[in-house]
Design goal:
- There is one protein chain.
- With 177 residues, the protein is mostly helical.
- It folds into 2 domains: 39 residues, no CATH class; 113 residues, no CATH class.
- It has 7 helices and no strands.
- The protein is flat and about 75 Å long.
């Protein structure tokens, strides 16, 4: 019985389900080309910009655009790490319960160290939220890849507060972009 469509190549290795065997390099190249095309279409980047790894995030595109410099990038990266640590600290289950079927064998000192770390992270997060004030929404919009438009003036204020908090050099101006 004839199959519709073009004829299969006979010189290609196939899996038992008749799909052609592709190398990891081929799969990776196809995946990257799809990602580059999507970045070009969605964010209006040229091919050279879309191939850069930092083009995949709002923070990276603001850095490429020249709106952020390396100190702003460093401050945002530190803030993002603090946010991840904070979310882990408030969202994690109590250390005294077992996870799955295996019991976690941890010393009392390790548990106290985890509690101390969580208290430090939560304290630093709350302090930084007070420092950032109304600018925290703009900072979080960059880090969470929000589809809402970013208020660049508020982002500038938040970046200045982050630079001051992390004792990074302050910027003269943020230009007109």
């Amino acid at each position: 019985m004839a199959r519709p469509g073009r004829k299969r190549r006979q010189d290609v290795k196939r899996y038992p389900n008749q799909q052609p065997v592709r190398s990891l390099a081929q799969i990776e190249a196809e995946t990257k080309s799809v990602a580059v095309e999507a970045r070009m279409r969605h964010h209006g980047l040229n091919k050279h910009q879309a191939k850069r790894p930092d083009a995949g995030s709002v923070q990276g595109r603001l850095l490429m655009d020249g709106f952020l410099d390396e100190y702003d990038d460093d401050a945002l990266t530190r803030f993002a790490q603090l946010r991840r640590d904070y979310m882990r600290a408030i969202d994690s289950p109590p250390a005294s319960i077992s996870v799955g079927l295996e019991r976690q064998d941890r010393s009392f000192e390790d548990l106290l160290e985890d509690v101390d770390q969580s208290v430090r992270v939560v304290s630093e997060w709350n302090g930084l939220r007070k420092i950032l004030g109304i600018h925290i929404d703009a900072i979080l919009a960059v880090l969470t890849e929000s589809s809402d438009p970013i208020n660049r003036m508020s982002l500038r204020g938040g970046l200045a507060a982050l630079r001051q908090h992390y004792r990074l050099p302050l910027r003269e101006s943020y230009g007109t972009r």
